[in-house]
Design brief:
heterodimer; A: 268 residues; mainly alpha; 11 helices; 2 strands; elongated; B: mainly alpha; 15 helices
Chain lengths: 268, 294
């Protein structure tokens, strides 16, 4: 092992003209795309009052249900709120466009025809493009000019398992794992620069590219605007059943409170 | 006082929601004079808003105008600045023109909750209670989670002697903040005022249980804070319930507990304990007189 470690001698020019440029370019591109994404981000769209009301109606019954098993509300008040919500959901009072007319089967809105939903999706795609394109360009650049380069030697020994990670693009079974190839150096930077970006740009930066690998543009759009096409009418109908379940589970905090207090003071 | 320490103080006011307007104004004006807010970075804008509100509070409208001008130049379409401008208008202009301004803002962005709330408060101030209640109910129907809104609605209702409606509004506040004994206490007191004694008794007991839950040996320690008030409530309810047992079920259908006698004894004991010690001697005598009078 020790003989093979000294058997390679790296030209310092590689360090100056390949290793540092790759690292620098990646950092700068990350910072650049942070600002490009900031420019591309459209301000969240304002929603009309009716839409907000529709969205938040579900939260109302969820709050009520969450407290049902140990509710601070006396039975009289609990049932009145619960019944009121249930009736409103049944009648569709909270729907954005008012109660549904007639008994026409409600079709879930098509996201392609709904301009509001389309906007959210486009915004997601745009940021995705800004994320992916520079990375592809850099990778092409490295592959074209520096293919098969060995850039640095890590100062600590590693097991053979790291070979595929650190020596991508070099097909030599015998080389010490501590040598890092150019393509692998790119990947190390790709995943490892996040901490540096956080130092430079703050914790909420959009320079980190490894994050995009897991996120799809649609997931992103869904998070950005919770008002994605949803059939609220159906959701409300389902919520009615939940309300009924909770009504069965309901019990008032004050039901046996007198005995609880008395026994705490040792009176009974 | 140096600028940085003044800034720090102001930032802590902001974080803690302290209203100390006079202090804020004194410190804020020196900062405003010494350099421009943009040099303060991101915090500078929050500082300007704070200073504007403080100077409206103490009537220095010229300073407030200066702040709002800088803010609206930086954020031309911000709803937050719109609220600030509205508050500034409320300070000097007639309610009608303020309402017109708010209507204009709401027309553009019907979901601007802060403007909507200010509009309601103006309506309430000029005595249009009915309209204010109407608007507030609509507001709460959209922004259900606003606990303060529900408490305000309950307050307006009980100021009009509409105790049942007030109880309903309070019940929403209770669901939203079940951990807050003050809301429960208000609920109990409103129920007592509405004449629903069994319900009031239960809620008072809930409050005492909530407050004294973490005290290891409650019978040895005197009640403090709101639990004194809650025990008084228990005492009042139980006394009236024993004196004249209700013939018909209460409005909320809450049964009178069978152990009402024991509760009355316990409440008497607890109320008297709260007057223990030197300072409480006089009060204790009065209370025992009041208790034995029946």
């Amino acid at each position: 092992m020790s003989t093979s470690a000294v058997s390679l001698y790296l030209d310092p020019q590689i360090r100056d003209w390949v290793l540092f440029p790759i690292t620098l370019v990646m950092i700068l591109v990350g910072i650049l795309r942070h600002y490009v994404v900031l420019l591309l981000q459209s301000s969240p769209k304002k929603q009309p009052r009716a839409a907000i009301r529709e969205q938040r109606a579900l939260a109302r019954s969820q709050i009520l249900r969450a407290t049902a098993s140990n509710s601070p509300l006396p039975p009289h008040f609990y049932t009145s709120i619960s019944r009121h919500l249930s009736d409103a959901f049944e009648a569709g009072t909270y729907l954005k466009d008012g109660p549904p007319k007639g008994d026409a089967p409600s079709t879930p809105p098509n996201p392609i025809t709904d301009p509001a939903a389309m906007d959210g999706m486009m915004a997601g795609m745009k940021t995705q493009m800004v994320m992916m394109v520079p990375q592809m360009v850099i990778m092409g650049w490295i592959n074209f000019f520096f293919q098969g380069f060995v850039l640095i030697k890590l100062p600590f020994p590693l097991t053979l398992g790291f070979k595929s990670m650190l020596q991508r693009g070099i097909e030599t079974p015998d080389m010490d794992v501590r040598w890092v190839s150019s393509l692998s150096w790119y990947f190390l930077n790709f995943f490892g620069l996040n901490g540096l970006y956080r130092l430079i740009l703050g914790s909420d930066n959009s320079a980190d590219s490894s994050r995009d690998m897991t996120a799809s543009p649609f997931a992103n759009a869904g998070a950005a605007s919770p008002g994605q096409p949803q059939d609220y009418n159906k959701l409300f109908k389902a919520e009615r059943d939940n309300l009924q379940f909770s009504e069965g589970m309901y019990s008032w905090v004050g039901k046996d409170i007198e005995n609880k207090v008395l026994s705490r003071y040792g009176k009974i | 006082m140096s600028l940085s320490s003044a800034l720090q103080q102001l930032a802590s006011y902001r974080a803690n929601n302290t209203r100390a307007s006079q202090e804020t104004f004194k410190k804020g004006v020196t900062i405003l004079k010494s350099r421009n807010a943009p040099n303060l970075g991101e915090d500078g804008w929050a500082f300007l808003e704070q200073l504007a509100l403080a100077s409206i509070d103490i009537g220095r409208l010229d300073v407030a105008d200066e702040c709002t001008k800088q803010l609206s130049e930086k954020f031309p379409n911000s709803p937050r600045v719109a609220v600030l401008v509205g508050i500034r208008k409320e300070a000097s202009e007639s309610p009608e023109s303020v309402l017109r301004y708010y209507d204009g803002v709401l027309e553009e962005d019907s979901a601007n909750a802060a403007i909507w709330k200010r509009r309601i408060s103006v309506l309430k101030r000029i005595g249009k209670t009915e309209k204010a209640v109407d608007e507030l109910s609509k507001f709460l129907d959209t922004f259900y989670t606003d606990v303060e809104g529900w408490l305000e609605l309950a307050d307006i209702y009980s100021s009009c002697n509409q105790y049942t409606s007030s109880l309903q509004a309070l019940s929403h506040a209770l669901v939203l903040a079940p951990q807050n004994p003050f809301t429960a206490l208000q609920f109990a007191e409103t129920a007592y005022t509405a004449g629903d004694l069994p319900l009031a008794l239960k809620m008072f007991l809930v409050v005492t249980e909530m407050v004294e839950r973490d005290i290891p040996a409650p019978e040895d320690s005197a009640p403090t804070g709101i639990s004194v008030r809650a025990w008084w409530g228990v005492k009042l309810c139980s006394r009236r319930l024993i004196e004249s047992p209700p013939s018909s079920p209460s409005a909320s259908d809450t049964p009178v507990p069978k152990t009402i006698k024991l509760i009355d004894e316990l409440a008497t004991e607890r109320v008297l304990t709260s007057y223990s010690g030197e300072q409480g001697a006089e009060g204790r005598q009065l209370v025992s007189q009041w208790i034995s009078a029946y």
